[in-house]
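lol so apparently i was supposed to do this last week
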Amino acid sequence: MGKALRSPSGRLLVSGCDVLRVPLTGDCEILREQDITVADGVIESVAPSGVTSSFDGAEVIDGRGLLATPGLVNAHTHSPMVLMRGAAEDVSVEAWFNQRVWPIESNLTADDVALGARLACAEMIGSGVTTFADHYFFPERIAEAVTESGLRADIAPTYFSSRGQEALESSVAFAEGWHGRADGRVTVSLGPHAPYTVDDEDLRTLADHARRLGLRMHIHAAENVEQTESSLRRRGVTPVQVLHETGVLDAGALIAHGCGIGEGDLPLLAAHAERTAVACCPKVYLKHALSPLTPVRALLGAGVTVAVGTDGAAGHNTLDVWEALRLVALTQKQAVGDATWMNVSDTLRLATRGGARALGLGDVVGALEPGMRADIALVDLSGPHCRPLHDERAALVYSVRASDVRTVIVDGRVLMRDRNVLTVDVPAVLAEIDERVGRLLDISHGKAVQHYDP
Ligand SMILES: [Zn+2]
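anyway here it is w/ zinc ion bound
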């Protein structure tokens, strides 16, 4: 494992690269042959190459022939679930939870989670993801992996009411202990799993804690239309209404999936749009033969932030946000029957600025502009699958492969250089995981962490 590089001067120069400019609205643009200067983790300038006067003592990355993009944001995942990649295929949602994932998760130890998180961090660094929103058990071990890897993450400790008050209190203690650590790269949201696994009283208590601590909530809700129908049948309100009534929307919520969000929910979400976002993870909806998909057009029309996620690799199989954003574009065009909708610029915006805003980091990351933290992916679009290169934005949305990402920088620190991940010892992590996976998949004990019956 190489040493993670950071110049002793705290200064970094990425020279001669093209830059993807992602504006708040309108078309993304390509700025040609730019120098990006970074000081103490912050972008100081993005200017035509050679114009910046001396940047002595800076670590220099030769960006010629590469395109600098804002690091991608994975707005919903369960990073340690990489341990279950490919272990729950060709099953319904109900069987995925009850026969595979929740029984397997009852085998997980804190050490398993630590290893899974480290592998996930390596995969995300390798594909240009610089920030992720995580939701899982043993969150301290994930936070340690994030700290070591150099990535940025918002971590929500998964909570089920079946786990009891002690678990709720330890969620809150994790938030109090970890929010803002790793030079601000680790933030925390509270993570009630879903309105169907967490009762209203616990949702209220967690929302109160979130408000007290100035944090948000990260929760699965209205994941599919069946959940919305079941909630209406059982209790006369939609899952989004439950989030409203329990104060979750008021605290601020990152809602995973939201495919069952209906017209009537939109005003509630719109009223909290400043702190509410929905993460769309289309690959898992397609795999589970679910429809409709996240109502992205209606949400954006209501002023609600939409972001792109992979969900865990037990469903998505990769943590590749290029793949996820491509599927967002394709499925949204198909869903609304409009080929002009979800164009390449809007798609790229969702996976960068949209993700940042969804995590409450809209002023921190998501664009390569002076004052933003320096979270940068340098992408090589010279491969035959991207050529001829008529439109870099189209290449990023429809042609690029995760392995085209050459170099990744977070907070001004180089985490991957020329495809070498510098902060995770991938062979060692894989060797340890290989020793453990057999035990993980043995579910003959018949136990499960939870039962799916929304
Ligand atoms: Zn999820």
